[in-house]
Write a structure and sequence with these properties.
CATH architecture of the largest domain: 2-Layer Sandwich
Number of helices: 4
Number of domains: 2
Structural class: alpha+beta
Number of strands: 12
Strand content: 25-35%
Distance between the termini: 21 Å
Length: 205
Amino acid sequence: MHPLYQDAQLLVFDKPAGLLSVPGRLPENKESLALRVQAVFPDALIVHRLDMATSGLIVMARGAEAHRALSIAFAERRVAKAYVAVVAGQAEADTGEVDLPLIADWPNRPRQKVDHQIGKPSLTRYRVLSRESDRTRVQLEPVTGRSHQLRVHMMAIGHPILGDEFYAPEAARRLSPRLLLHAEHLSLPHPLSGDRLSFHAPAPF
């Protein structure tokens, strides 16, 4: 894996769709971005993850101190992320928010679900980029970082992401051979200097 950016404290990659961020439990799921990177950069540590089906920007820390600093930045929401997605149907509003609490759907893991009683607060902002007859291209900003948040929120408002094998109905799944979700923008404080760094990786769809 060739980094888009590297220095002594951090690495930034454009993860392809279909590659796990970290190894899974099963032997057939050992192949991952983390293992590929650690073969070249042994001090690299995962700070956050992207779903296997999601492509785009992911940052790894180099060493324990950088990992701690970046983990705190994520926890304190000093990291800004923006995704591009193509969703089913025509979104009516040009901008909006989805504020629906999420929790793991335990009998159907790794799926998540909306639960107004015990779900964790989850907020996504969206902005329409373009519309076609049967789909809408949107920019998605996850204010919180719940598992599958963007996928569940888009499904919950009637616009599932095309190619989503977990949440899209069959008709929307068939419209794309892959999940049309890509982490396109990432902005964060450098773990040593604190200077703001911004990265961009255009969506491949």
